[in-house]
Automatic annotation (TrEMBL):
Its cofactor is Zn(2+). GO terms for molecular function: 3'-tRNA processing endoribonuclease activity; metal ion binding. It comes from Pomatorhinus ruficollis (streak-breasted scimitar babbler). It holds the Pfam family Anti-Pycsar_Apyc1. It comes from the Eukaryota. This is RNZ1 protein. The lineage of its organism: Eukaryota, Metazoa, Chordata, Craniata, Vertebrata.
Length: 209
């Protein structure tokens, strides 16, 4: 399995002419997974050797603007480069509770219609992840409005006795989110590569001494 990381932005708080806001891409077997999407990420992608159209998963660590204000614009640009395809697998977006509402409202208010499906999977934080005065429960924001609820996706809770949220799993690796402690609910992401059995013929080696 080949993995390659490209840093698109390592700045904090705001972008500068020489340093973009937080974003990095993990390239894995032809797919690109984007971690954070600060302002200017799509411009940084254009300057890189990567193809934005290969982004299949997006992971947002927390809802501070320098980590996700670039997301609506990036999705719209990807849509402009796409053709309608109902059979296409959705772009999976993972992030803290409230991300679905932000994207839905941003795209609705700007009259943006994406030509590809996407799903938002929200991580429900625990109240102790940030100072009590900063914790906000976004779970009921869109309830009772009589409007579409935005894109599909899962709502992921931290299971009792567990210390991480399982997001993605296949035969090669698993992706988990774990709680970080910041001014607002935040998450880190870890990729766990699964053991790969060896291909040595042990008996033949023993026979050869």
């Amino acid at each position: 399995m080949s993995l390659e990381i490209t840093f698109l932005g390592t700045g904090s708080a705001f972008p500068s002419p020489a340093r973009g806001a937080s974003a990095l891409v993990l390239r894995r077997e032809g797919q690109c997974w984007l971690f954070d999407c600060g302002e200017g990420t799509q411009t940084q992608l254009m300057r890189s050797h990567l193809r934005a159209a290969r982004i299949t998963k997006i992971f947002i660590t927390h809802l501070h603007g320098d980590h996700f204000f670039g997301l609506p614009g990036l999705l719209c640009t990807l849509s402009l480069q796409s053709s309608p395809d109902a059979s296409k697998a959705p772009v999976d977006i993972y992030g803290p509770l409230g991300l679905r509402s932000f994207l839905w409202r941003s795209l609705e208010l700007s009259h943006s219609q994406l030509l590809f499906p996407y799903a938002v999977h929200e991580l429900v934080p625990t109240p102790d992840q940030c100072p009590p005065e900063e914790f906000k429960d976004f779970s009921g924001w869109d309830a009772g409005e009589g409007l579409p609820r935005g894109p599909p996706g899962r709502v992921l809770h931290l299971d009792p006795g567990e210390d991480s949220y399982l997001l993605v799993e296949d035969e090669q690796l698993a992706v988990r989110a774990f709680r970080l402690f910041h001014r607002v609910p935040s998450f880190g992401f870890v990729l766990e590569e699964k053991p790969r059995p060896g291909k040595l013929n042990v008996q033949k080696l023993k026979d050869l001494g």
